[in-house]
Specification:
CATH architecture: 3-Layer(aba) Sandwich
Order of helices and strands: EHHEEEHEH
Distance between the termini: 52 Å
Number of domains: 1
Helix content: 25-40%
Number of helices: 4
Number of strands: 5
Largest sheet: 5 strands, mixed
Length: 156
Amino acid sequence: PLWSPPPGVELRTAADYADDPRPLFELDAETVADEPSDVDVEFTDYEAWLAETWRHPLLDRELTTVVVVDGRPAAFSVAYTDGTRYATAMTGTVRAQRGRGLAKLAKTDSLHRARAAGYTEALTGNDTDNGPMLAINKWLGYEICATEVRHVRELG
């Protein structure tokens, strides 16, 4: 079920930032900085982010939900679509706002938008060390359909 945002919180889409996506760059940069993963990521180049993320051919700005707290983007769930399938590419919350259910709100809203747009299958993925996102995905009814294993070897 989709619930109403608490006072001071509003739901927007990435399309609302078409004229100036920099606030989403800053949100993305902060959320991925400590995202559980075996590969560290750091966004420092706005122009590269525009080319690789904002202009990604699968990015669906209408289905990407941005949670705004007191006028500032605080959480988001990025949607990729190819015309037949919907996938969550990233969901995150800035550190200062974590623990308030904002990522869950963003992802739930995005899924509702996807269903309203006619999508019938949703895909997502996350690191097994990301307990909070695993809990959200379980609550949303996601089931494991595949796993990925990465191997590493030190070259010394």
